[in-house]
């Protein structure tokens, strides 16, 4: 009888039930010796978490990718130089301070070809000109001959002007250069849209992308008035009705004598424009053209580099937009 009672007690314990007093009270006047040991085993088993999953429980849901929260604007007009290149120049040391002012008044070739270079460094050494120029060599020798302690030597100087602060900081060990912070260039280098447009275009672009629905679209936005002037979409049934042309017709209908189509406006595109549309946008005098997708076969910018060939009459900025 004892074996039967113990067996029933263990069976109930295996499913998380514990009624030892009820099971054994009719057979034993006091708890048997094996009961404390069995109770400890059950308690230890209950303390271990189960690693098996129930077959009825669904697997954890896959977390969706976070939606893009900002736009990155990549300028196609500028090849940002972050590391300076250098060229050899001749400089003269040991010139008296009283004579340096006289040298600086003399005509110099630096102003024409190298306006970013300063004539004198912190050690009062005077920069003469490129080392591979015979005229410069003769000029440097003449300067050195006029002063007892003067010495001509070759120094590496930055070949181009600094347009970014990070580039300018790397030129300091070579030779002093002139530098002025260009906020537009710094913003474009960081992937931001310069000017007043940068703080407004992101929300407009996101709303535009939601309305596309697999279409090719175009928006003309006036940053000064903070207003969308026109919005158009390509018509697959009409080969020449590209999104730009559909939008241009709307803009032209609202033009007056005080405005030249979309002068000063930004154009937002879902795809890189073709050559025809790119020329039309240039004629509209827009300030910037921004597009989301490349157009490898017919695109005017990434493959054909049309924006690099504009004449000086008008030239708009070109930006490739990416979601982040």
From TrEMBL:
Transmembrane segments: none annotated. Residues 46-69 are annotated as: Disordered. Residues 56-67 have a biased composition (Pro residues). InterPro entries: CMP_dCMP_dom (IPR002125), Cytidine_deaminase-like (IPR016193). Residues 199-304 form the CMP/dCMP-type deaminase domain. One of its GO terms (molecular function) is catalytic activity. SUPFAM superfamilies: Cytidine deaminase-like (SSF53927). This is CMP/dCMP-type deaminase domain-containing protein. It comes from Panagrellus redivivus (Microworm).
């Amino acid at each position: 009888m004892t074996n039967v009672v113990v067996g029933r007690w263990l069976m109930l314990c295996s499913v998380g039930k514990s009624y030892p007093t009820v099971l054994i009270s009719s057979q034993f006047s006091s708890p048997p010796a094996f009961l404390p040991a069995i109770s400890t085993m059950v308690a230890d088993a209950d303390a271990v978490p189960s690693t098996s999953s129930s077959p009825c429980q669904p697997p954890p849901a896959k977390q969706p990718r976070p939606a893009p929260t900002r736009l990155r604007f990549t300028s196609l007009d500028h090849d940002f130089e972050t590391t300076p290149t250098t060229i050899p120049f001749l400089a003269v040391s040991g010139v008296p301070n009283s004579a340096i002012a006289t040298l600086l008044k003399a005509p110099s070739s630096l102003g024409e070809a190298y306006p970013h270079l300063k004539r004198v460094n912190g050690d009062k050494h005077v920069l003469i000109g490129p080392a591979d120029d015979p005229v410069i060599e003769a000029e440097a020798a003449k300067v050195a001959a006029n002063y007892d302690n003067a010495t001509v030597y070759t120094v590496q100087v930055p070949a181009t002007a600094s347009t970014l602060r990070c580039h300018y900081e790397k030129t300091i060990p070579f030779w002093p250069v002139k530098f002025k912070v260009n906020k537009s260039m710094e913003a474009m280098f960081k992937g931001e849209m310069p000017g007043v447009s940068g703080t407004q275009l992101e929300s407009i672009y996101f709303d535009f992308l939601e309305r596309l629905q697999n279409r090719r679209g175009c928006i003309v936005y006036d940053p000064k008035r903070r207003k969308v002037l026109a919005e158009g979409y390509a018509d697959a049934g009409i080969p020449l009705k590209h999104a730009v042309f559909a939008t241009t017709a709307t803009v032209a209908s609202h033009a007056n004598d005080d405005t030249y189509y979309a002068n000063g406006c930004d154009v937002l595109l879902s795809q890189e424009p073709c050559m025809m549309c790119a020329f039309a946008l240039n004629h509209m005098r827009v300030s910037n053209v921004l597009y989301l997708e490349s157009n490898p076969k017919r695109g005017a910018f990434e493959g054909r580099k049309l924006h690099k060939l504009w004449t000086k009459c008008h030239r708009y900025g070109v930006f490739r937009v990416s979601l982040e």
